[in-house]
Amino acid sequence: MSSASYDIVLLDIEGTTTPISFVHDVLFPYVANNVKEFLEQRWDHPEVQTHVRAIAEQANKDVDAGIASAVPIDLGALEAGQQSVADVRQGVLANIEWQMKADRKIGALKGLQGYMWRFGYEDGELKGVIYDDAMEAIQRWTKNGRKVYIYSSGSVEAQKLIFGYTNHGDLLPYISGHYDTKIGSKVMASSYSAIAKDIGQAPERILFVSDNINEIHAASSAGMQTVVSIRPGNAPIDDMAQFKSTENFMNISL
After folding, report:
1. Rounded mean pLDDT of the chain?
2. pTM of the prediction?
């Protein structure tokens, strides 16, 4: 690839630094297979209740919006003793189930998933998978004065777990910051402008790497440099001729 000039590297995770199969074949099934028991055992924990309230709020918005799969959750009725914990918990589980099947990128769901994954990583049941070349490039970038940030639809907590418990050890010391969809949708140019502003760097000095062509278009529209990540198992991309691409991060010029 031709030489580039940038100070910041902004990386996607799924299909970019990490095999897309890791998320769908390891992380998602971990939640699906354990969430019922997890909620039963930890229902009264304050952190769990924070996530339950967020899921309930989203579920009720979905019901009001006419989404057929959404199940209403009435926490007020629970607090008033008009509904049992078991009934409310079943409503929470039903909403989690349909949203996961739809691969819905909603903050309430992502928050609970990240919270559950923390226990899996800490117990050694989960280990983040980072491509060898991604690990080598991240280390090379930081060694050469570039700062590396992460921008993923997964929650910041989930991002930190993936990079904190990897097949290459703890990579968090190489990461300068994390962004999730709280800063905006990954397919909106305004999100990338907001990230650039938050970092304190001109968009033109930021290199964004992702496997998602819609994200690449959005980042490019915001003025960022871009590279399309080509990885095994990623969906084919038809309209990327105008963008640089790579199968190996070490081929990205410093």
Report:
1. 94
2. 0.84
